[in-house]
């Protein structure tokens, strides 16, 4: 049950091994597109984008032999689906302790759906500077965009209906890695 809504398990679409393979592929694609990682920083959108960003950064470090700066972005006060008083309370806070101006920022999230989370993240990111580029990496793209936003790097495209919910679990927060679809 989620917020009073009864969810029925429909399918498991990614296990730990599939998530690991997707992170590896995303990492290689980021390196290739940016012709290395010299001016690249990776910022995860809280909450599940943050551990994914750290995994991608670790994989890039293993491939390139160089550390990639990572951070976490809290978009709570930038969301358009929360009442103003709820958005004003803030969340866990952002953790970006480096300058992003002039750099290639790779935003990372677990699932892209309507595009509203990414829109909020773009607004929040501008409070930290003016990046050279902003790229988007997601583990799952489930379609149904409401805004003209697309991911540059996608782990898995999963066609869904609006009645379905894609749930990502990561060991850092949920004690196991898996992506499942539930139906309302």
Task: Break the fold down into its secondary structure elements and pairings.
Layout: E1 8-14, H1 16-33, E2 40-45, H2 49-64, E3 69-73, H3 84-88, E4 104-112, H4 116-126, E5 133-141, E6 153-157, E7 164-169, H5 171-174, E8 178-183
Parallel strand pairs: 2-3, 2-4, 4-5, 5-6
Antiparallel strand pairs: 1-8, 7-8
Helix pairs in contact: 1-2
Q: What does this entry show, briefly?
A:
The chain is α/β, with parallel strands linked by helices and 184 residues long. The chain is built from five helices and eight strands, in the order βαβαβαβαβββαβ.
Overview of this structure, please?
This protein has helices at 16-33, 49-64, 84-88, 116-126, 171-174; strands at 8-14, 40-45, 69-73, 104-112, 133-141, 153-157, 164-169, 178-183. It is an alpha/beta fold and 184 residues long. The strands form two sheets. The protein has a five-stranded parallel β-sheet, with helices on both faces. Strands 1-8-7 form a three-stranded antiparallel β-sheet. The longest helix is centred in the first third of the chain and has 18 residues, at 16-33. It has five helices and eight strands, in the order E-H-E-H-E-H-E-H-E-E-E-H-E. Residues 87-91 have low confidence and may be disordered.
pLDDT averaged over residues: 93
- CATH architectural grouping: 3-Layer(aba) Sandwich
> Counting H and I runs of at least 4 residues, what is the number of helices?
5
Rough outline = globular
Coarse structural class: alpha/beta
Elements, N to C (H/E): EHEHEHEHEEEHE
CATH class categorisation: Alpha Beta
Could you list the spans in which at least 5 consecutive residues all have pLDDT below 50? 87-91
CATH topology, what is it called? Rossmann fold
Q: What is the count of structural domains? A: 1
Secondary structure: helix percent: 25-40%
| Percentage of residues in strands | 25-35%
């Amino acid at each position: 049950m989620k917020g009073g809504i009864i969810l029925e398990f429909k399918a498991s679409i990614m296990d730990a091994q599939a998530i690991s393979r997707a992170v590896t592929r995303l990492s290689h694609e980021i390196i290739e597109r940016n012709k290395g990682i010299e001016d690249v920083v990776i910022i995860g959108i809280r909450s599940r984008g943050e551990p994914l960003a750290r995994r991608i950064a670790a994989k890039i470090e293993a491939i390139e032999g160089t550390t990639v700066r990572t951070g976490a972005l809290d978009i709570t006060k930038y969301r358009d689906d929360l009442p103003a008083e709820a958005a004003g309370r803030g969340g866990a806070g952002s953790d970006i302790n480096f300058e992003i101006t002039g750099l290639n920022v790779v935003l990372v999230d677990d699932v892209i759906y309507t595009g509203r989370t990414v829109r909020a993240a773009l607004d929040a990111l501008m409070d930290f500077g003016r990046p050279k580029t902003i790229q988007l990496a997601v583990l799952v793209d489930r379609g149904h965009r409401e805004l003209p936003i697309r991911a540059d790097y996608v782990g898995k495209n999963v066609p869904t209906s609006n009645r379905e919910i894609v749930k990502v679990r990561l060991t850092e927060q949920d004690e196991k890695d898996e992506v499942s679809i539930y139906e309302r």
